[in-house]
Specification:
Layout: H1 2-16, E1 26-29, E2 35-42, E3 45-53, E4 83-91, E5 96-104, E6 107-115, E7 121-127, E8 134-141
Antiparallel strand pairs: 1-2, 1-8, 2-3, 3-4, 4-5, 5-6, 6-7, 7-8
Amino acid sequence: MKLLFSFILFFIAPYLMANDAPKVEGIWTCSKKDCKVEIYKTGNTYEAKLLWARKELDENGKPKLDKKNPDPAKRNLPVIGGKTLWNAVYNEETHYFENATAYRNGRNFCGKFKLNEDGTLTIIGYICSMNILRFSETWSRVK
């Protein structure tokens, strides 16, 4: 009986205790400190919404409307508060949150992100139709 228990503990337990995704939920500031984004988990995927962005405020300090949205029904909604990222899924092998789709200025982008050892978040994105045109930036956690 002890041998069976030892076998289970040594060989099977690691598979039962799968690696959880790093805790990326929270509020992040973009690399230029000109926006704040909240990342949250929805089911098995991660999403984000824009909380604040300097470029998304008009001359009176009020949120601009999403006039470039491809969906006409959303063009009268403020950009701030809108979903900016969805479908990100954590990959235990690469340690990236992959297959993410992000929205900005009327366009969708594809990409991935990773929590670094220093607590920052590396974002890698590209225009979905052109995987070769990549950009990256590093975000810092606000809370």
